[in-house]
Amino acid sequence: MQPTELLGLAAPAKLNLFLHVTGRRADGYHLLQSAFVLLDWCDHIDVLLRADGGIVRHDTQAELQLPADDLCVKAARALQQATGCRLGATIVLHKHLPAEAGLGGGSSDAATCLLALNRLWQLGLSRTALADIGLGLGADVPFFVHGRSAWVEGIGEHIAPLAVAQTSVVVLKPPLGASTRDIFTAPDLCRDTPTIDPSVWLSASEVSPAELMRSTHNDLQPVAERLCPPITEAMAWMARQGLSGRMSGSGSAVFALAPERCAAETAPAGWTLKNCRILRIHPNFDLCSG
């Protein structure tokens, strides 16, 4: 019997172990190379079937305002449009991941909604088909749909599984966020980092995050630090703990490989500190069989 609701679905954060900007297309989109990993730090989503075709979204945190371009709602409507499905859904978001962090929270929420609604609406779409729909919502959505640590290229559409070791990491997020748009439009952004041949990494039975990070960097970080000085403060905090920090995505969260847990009280007041672990596979991977 098909379910009428799916409750407590995890929408995990991601980290960019590195992020190189290798060029720019004529339409303005930037070409990237990156290694994405999933974390065991998650939002959680309840999805309930509606027969009236409506898409309704609620937050469990009353202080959160539902934006007009909410990605969960956009994901549900994009799936309806792509398939002609006349069913609807009530989506309840239990938000734990910070916004404007470079952790992919909104994209992960959208991907989890696509996976859940594909099951609830009995659409039977493949993971590839769902990822194609997700790309129209945001460059990170296909990665979350595919649900494994991955080598990512292009504008986010070229994804290859990467067997990254399940390493412990610490993530520090300042209260202020970084504007992805401002970073990518900055004239001093490096846009010509040489491409890496990923074959050695993709063929490895297990990739060490430390080894991969040793020979790479995040091209967005210098611009992000200029636009959002707390990122520099976060890097300095990591250094004081004896850790080698790096910004994830477009920030403002900074992370480091950390064999030992960092105590929350050591973080600056008002900042978010989270001890996490890299996941090999998405918690909801089995929602899609294709």
Description:
The chain is an alpha+beta fold. The chain has two domains: 5-163, Ribosomal Protein S5, domain 2, CATH 3.30.230.10; 168-279, Alpha-Beta Plaits (2-Layer Sandwich), CATH 3.30.70.890. The chain has helices spanning 71-83, 105-120, 127-135, 141-146, 180-185, 199-203, 209-214, 221-227, 230-240; strands at residues 5-24, 30-50, 55-59, 88-94, 150-154, 158-161, 168-173, 246-247, 254-257, 272-279. Strands 1, 2, 3, 4, 5, 6, 7, 8, 9 and 10 form a ten-stranded mixed β-sheet that branches. The longest helix is centred in the middle third of the chain and has 16 residues, at 105-120. The chain is globular.
Helix content: 25-40%
The 3D shape can be described as globular
User: Based on the structure, what is the oligomeric state of the protein chains?
Assistant: single chain
As for the number of domains, it is: 2
What count of helical segments does DSSP give? 9
Q: Report the count of strand segments.
A: 10
By CATH reckoning, the class of the largest domain would read Alpha Beta
What is the correct CATH architecture of the largest domain? 2-Layer Sandwich
Largest sheet: 10 strands, mixed
Q: Give the rounded overall mean pLDDT.
A: 94
Would you identify the regions where 5 or more consecutive residues have pLDDT less than 50? none
- Reported by name, the CATH topology of the largest domain is Ribosomal Protein S5, domain 2
Provide the structure class.
alpha+beta
What percent strand?
25-35%
Radius of gyration using CA atoms only = 19 Å
Ends apart, CA distance between termini: 19 Å
Helix and strand run: EEEHEHHHEEEHHHHHEEE
